[in-house]
Write a structure and sequence with these properties.
Blueprint lengths: L1 H16 L9 E6 L4 E5 H4 L6 E14 L8 E11 L4 E10 L5 E6 L7 H4 L2 E2 L5 H18 L2
Antiparallel strand pairs: 1-2, 2-3, 3-4, 4-5, 5-6, 5-7
């Protein structure tokens, strides 16, 4: 009986503390002004070695955002983008919408594994866009890393 109890406790601890939704981000400001408030996950930029990579972007909406199909006002949007430096395009993998009390309202996940490259990266990276600023930051970090070697 003690073995089963111990097994149950170990299983409970494993499930409780290995929850995949507990993501640790290292948010750094990307654009902070009257019109936009956007942060990027610095921990992801530090580990990018391939021309295609994922990056989390956090955006605060003031005034709150209203979207059709979502009844609550949206204060924050956390989006996982997939970026391809070779084609200089990006796409969306996942979007999470949060209310003013930081509670998740709605989430969307796009299965990018089953679609062709043509449709995976549908947005061009435009000059002076937030995604261009992310890439500029990536290049700055790479140069810094190289200079420290």
């Amino acid at each position: 009986m003690q073995k089963y109890f111990l097994l149950f406790i170990l299983l409970f601890i494993t499930v409780r503390f290995s929850n995949g939704q507990n993501e640790n981000h290292n948010w750094k400001p990307l654009i902070i002004n009257d019109a936009q408030r956007i942060w990027y996950d610095r921990s992801q930029l530090d580990t990018i070695n391939n021309p295609a990579f994922d990056i989390w972007i956090l955006e605060m909406h003031r005034p709150t955002l209203s979207l059709e199909g979502i009844s609550d006002n949206i204060m924050r949007t956390k989006t996982l983008y997939i970026v391809d430096l070779q084609s200089y395009k990006y796409g969306i993998k996942k979007v999470l919408y949060y209310d003013p009390s930081n509670q998740l309202i709605k989430s969307f996940q796009y299965n990018t594994n089953s679609i062709t490259e043509e449709y995976k990266f549908i947005f061009p990276i435009m000059e002076n866009s937030f995604m261009q600023k992310v890439i500029d930051e990536l290049l700055r970090l790479r140069k810094l890393k190289e200079s420290l070697k």
